[in-house]
Write a structure and sequence with these properties.
The chain contains nine helices and five strands. With 232 residues, it is α/β, with parallel strands linked by helices. The chain has a five-stranded parallel sheet with strand order 3-2-1-4-5, with helices on both faces. The termini are far apart. Residues 61-185 form the DUF218 domain. This is DUF218 domain-containing protein.
Length: 232
């Protein structure tokens, strides 16, 4: 009886330690599975990121460019000048920016900037860009749209636009920024951080689009930048 009691006491003393190790192993396994899923999702996201190229042969009713880089603006104006669309919306413009300032900044495209460009000043994030673009498309009764933004930003942009305008044909025009034009992105920490951050935003937008009820147009268009850091 004494030996049995000693064995039971020893087992009881070891149980908390065994429980801790079981919890550690469970957490490690969960972290491993979660990391694997995140990596697989990131690889899938990279496959959605389009590469740049010459898209001047594309034609649509209108063109929309999302602010965030000078290359986006120049590409959008070049498409407009080439006759790829009837009008251009630049979404997410600073409230103080005017058409004349745009013409001075892009002298090669000044005639088009003064006649055929609309500046959207209400959008504060990508979801707001989509709402602002929808209103513009409805006002002009466009049925097709060329979308100009950075390649890494294109998957999230197309998802938001398709949600707001499911009956409008969307044609992506990815812009390759200077940061992504050189060596592979994974060799540069700043670029890798940019891609990783955009993947996180894409997943968050995907969850919201699929699971959350649609926000009202006014609420979405004026949403703060906290959920969507300034784009570059």
């Amino acid at each position: 009886m004494v030996a049995g009691s000693d064995l039971h006491a020893r087992h009881a003393a070891l149980s908390p330690r065994a429980a801790v190790w079981r919890a550690v192993r469970a957490l490690a396994l969960a972290a491993l599975i979660g990391g694997g899923l995140a990596l697989a999702g990131f690889v899938g996201f990279l496959r959605l990121v389009p590469s740049g190229g010459d898209h001047l042969n594309e034609k649509a009713d209108g063109i929309v460019a999302l602010t965030g880089g000078a290359e986006r603006l120049s590409d959008a104006l070049r498409l407009l000048a080439a006759g790829s669309g009837k009008r251009l919306l630049i979404s997410g413009v600073h409230p103080a920016t005017t058409e004349n300032e745009l013409a001075r900044a892009q002298p090669d495209y000044a005639p088009w900037a003064r006649c055929c460009v609309d500046l959207g000043r209400r959008a504060l994030n990508t979801a707001g860009n989509a709402v602002e673009t929808k209103r513009w498309v409805e006002r002009h009764q466009f049925r097709s749209l060329i979308v100009v933004t950075s390649g890494y930003h294109m998957p999230r942009t197309m998802m938001e636009l398709a949600r707001e305008m499911p009956d409008v044909a969307l044609i992506p025009h990815p812009v390759v920024t200077d940061r992504l034009r050189g060596e592979p992105w994974w060799r540069d920490w700043a670029t890798a951080k940019l891609m990783g951050g955009e993947y996180v935003k894409y997943v968050a937008a995907l969850v919201r689009v699929r699971l959350a009820p649609r926000m009202s147009s006014a609420e979405t268009a004026t949403a703060g930048r906290g959920a969507d850091a300034p784009r570059s």
